[in-house]
Design a protein that fits this description.
- The protein is of the alpha/beta class.
- The chain has 4 domains: 86 residues, PAS domain (Beta-Lactamase, 2-Layer Sandwich); 96 residues, Helix Hairpins (Orthogonal Bundle), CATH 1.10.287; 162 residues, Heat Shock Protein 90, CATH 3.30.565; 134 residues, Rossmann fold, CATH 3.40.50.2300.
- The chain is built from 13 helices and 17 strands.
- The strands form 3 sheets. Strands 6, 7, 8, 9, 10, 11 and 12 form a 7-stranded mixed sheet that branches. A 5-stranded antiparallel sheet has the order 2-1-5-4-3, covered by helices on one side.
- A hairpin with a 7-residue loop joins strand 9 and strand 10.
- Helix 6 packs antiparallel against helix 7.
- 26% of the residues are buried.
């Protein structure tokens, strides 16, 4: 009796599939949908192109809600949970038929919306602040996109210039331009990070990294920067701190850079010191204290509470520059990392900023060669036969020219360019390509629509081509949207040349295995 009821209420609503790294169905109990073993799961529905991208993510499992699947003339809405087996290179998919639930929810929402509309009329004034914040976030995201697009060309052609035959004086000028463009990228990132923090969307991501190498690079960079201002720079790193730690390297770097930039900006003579230490000998988690000490202009007591406000500069005469965001970001990031930022300062004598972050100790303290980024090397002419064909969807001519130079220098691929999404589809239908690079913002048909059309194309070879997004859009929502339409990898502008070719090679190798 119980088994019959269990079958009626559970088994008819749940289905378990096992899928290999190359999209092949290894097993299916066919409770909801009839999917043959050995078939390609992407032939059943384009959504499943997202399956193998899970191997590139740290999370072991994911949960996708309300996936619409049309099968045998019937529309079903299913929730899909996934769990990857890295060793066996398998993905377990657990499908739950939620069709009736989502239909009922939709009906309930229709009734409830009428009362919500009346309620919202009364609450309109209270929502104005949130509306303004949303407008600001959208504005910043759009401005970031528009600025990153020309910045991609600026930084790309700077690298091209540096590799050309130019004089030392010209190289010095190019380096100045490069520093200025990197500063502009930093300001853009600061603006977006402030927006994310205020919206509660910025997350701390803990990963293993080479802490000593990270501090060494940072120290050398600011020793040179300090030398340019004829300042003394010293860095003291505690001997009992392990080399490999676990934490958010990006955010720690962001905090330290903002504090060091602040010290450089307001110190005219004397020294800047960075002390990093720990009193603990815990083998698993270490509280590490960072302290930046300068002999700069200092902070008046009445201004101590103002220095962490966004867009605030205590020096009103414009002598020191900066966006006025640095210390605000430092305060909010240290708060996110469960740390208290302590400030001590004497006006006219200098300042000290100190914070303590607890980092994990990696159980593996061995250096891995794969952590080092290999230099980009052009392939010899005799090895370029049978080049892989790459199609690049991009409407901005200067970006087209930059990418042409990148591929000419690499020598390992041939590149064609289509200036909008419709041309991308037409080129794919007329010529054989091995991989698609796709800008997401194009006229006529944008990258999202083009990717959707490709994943639903009647030609199976076109449908399965690897796609890499090259975009000036940086929000997590847009990255998730790209993944949902079947884009395999997402690189943000300004494009890192070495990372782009590394990603191309990785996807081509995976596609080769699958076929």
């Amino acid at each position: 009796m119980l088994s019959a009821i269990r079958k009626e209420f559970l088994e008819n609503r749940h289905q378990l599939l096992v899928v290999s790294e190359d999209y092949k169905v290894l097993s299916s109990d066919n409770t909801i949908f009839n999917i043959n073993d050995g078939s390609d799961i992407t032939d059943f529905h384009p959504f499943f192109f997202t399956v193998t991208t899970l191997f590139d993510e740290e999370e072991a499992s994911r949960h996708f809600f309300c996936v619409q699947i049309d099968h045998l003339g019937r529309t079903r809405y299913v929730d899909i949970r996934t769990k990857k087996d890295v060793l066996e290179k398998k993905i377990y998919l657990f499908l739950e038929d939620m069709t009736e639930h989502y239909k009922n929810v939709h009906q309930i929402k229709q009734v409830r919306n009428e009362s919500i509309i009346q309620f919202n009329i009364v609450q309109e004034l209270n929502n104005q602040l949130e509306v303004q914040r949303g407008f600001k976030n959208k504005f910043l995201a759009n401005v970031s996109h528009e600025i990153r697009t020309p910045l991609n060309s600026i930084q790309g052609f700077i690298n091209v210039l540096k590799m050309s035959n130019i004089s030392k004086e010209q190289l010095d000028l190019v380096n100045i331009i490069e520093d200025s463009s990197e500063t502009l990228v930093t300001i853009l990132d600061d603006l977006l990070d402030i927006s994310k923090i205020e919206a509660g969307r910025l997350e701390i991501k803990n990963r293993r990294f080479d802490f000593k190498s990270f501090i060494n690079v940072l120290s050398k960079t600011y020793a040179l920067r300090a030398e340019e201002k004829r300042l003394e720079f010293t860095c003291e790193l505690g001997e009992n701190i392990p080399r490999f730690l676990v934490g958010d390297r990006l955010r720690i770097n962001q905090v330290l850079i903002n504090l060091l930039e602040n010290a450089l900006r307001y110190t005219h003579k004397g020294s800047i010191r960075m002390n990093i230490s720990t009193d603990s000998r815990n083998l698993r988690r270490l509280p590490i204290t960072f302290e930046i000490i300068d002999t700069g202009i200092g902070i008046a007591p009445e201004n101590m509470d103002k220095i962490f406000e966004s867009f605030t500069q205590l020096e009103k005469r414009g002598l020191f520059g900066g966006s006025g965001l640095g210390l605000s970001i430092v305060k909010q990031l240290t708060d996110l990392m469960d740390s208290d930022l302590e400030v001590k300062s004497i006006e006219g004598e200098g300042s000290s900023f100190m914070f303590t972050i607890t980092l994990g100790v990696s159980h593996d303290q061995r250096s891995k060669t794969q952590e080092q980024v290999a230099p980009l090397v052009s392939l010899p002419a005799e090895k370029t036969k049978g080049k892989k064909r790459i199609l690049y969807g991009e409407d901005i001519e200067v970006n087209q020219l930059l990418m042409t130079k990148f591929f000419a220098e690499h020598g390992g691929y041939s590149l064609d360019i289509a200036k909008n999404g419709e041309w991308v589809i037409e080129y794919l239908e007329r010529y054989p390509y091995d991989l698609l690079l796709l800008d997401l913002t194009m006229p006529v048909m944008d990258g999202f629509d083009a990717a959707t059309a490709i994943r639903n194309h009647s030609n199976k070879k076109i449908q399965k081509i690897p796609i890499i997004a090259l975009s000036a859009r940086t929000t997590e929502e847009e990255k998730m949207e790209a993944k949902e339409v079947g884009i395999n990898a997402y690189l943000t502008k300004p494009i890192n040349q070495a990372l782009m070719f590394e990603t191309i090679e990785r996807l081509l190798n995976r596609y080769k295995k699958k076929n």
